[in-house]
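Sample pair:
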Amino acid sequence: MLVAVLQALPPSWRGVLRYEEQALSAGQWWRALTAHGLHLSWPHTGINACGLLLCCALADATWTGRRLLMRMAALSVLVSLLLWTISPQVHDYVGLSGVLYGLIVWMLLPPVLLQRDATAAMVLLAVIGWLSWQSWAGPDPLEQKLIGGYIVTQAHWFGLLGGFLGALISCCRQLLGR
């Protein structure tokens, strides 16, 4: 519901919340978190909301609502900081998709590594394959037209990296019994 509320905000309010490289450089750090709740259009909002519902369906019982929100916040900040430091050519960004890529990896990699879950492995391979294809072939022009802007593939890779790191930490904690 929060992404719908943020999408309905007046454009001037949304402008204060979006990721903008110059604004982060000027110390407006909240944008590293809030940009991921904003979207380019209502179709973009809907696609990302469906992605979040898919993540919730993939989550096991250890993923409480609080844990999900904390991990989404961590992924949001990480994606923004990596965009800011590694991809300065990305001047502005909104959307939850980078965070969603991270959540999928964070949710599915531990079952692959700890339980040898073949289904989770196939889903992870499909997600990584799709992202690799999108990076090689470029974003789909029809998808960009639907969402109302350019797809920032770097954010997807940064989210995937964050999910990978989070999953490895989760696996270590499970192996240590914490």
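Residues 2-175 form a domain with the Rhomboid-like fold fold (CATH 1.20.1540.10).
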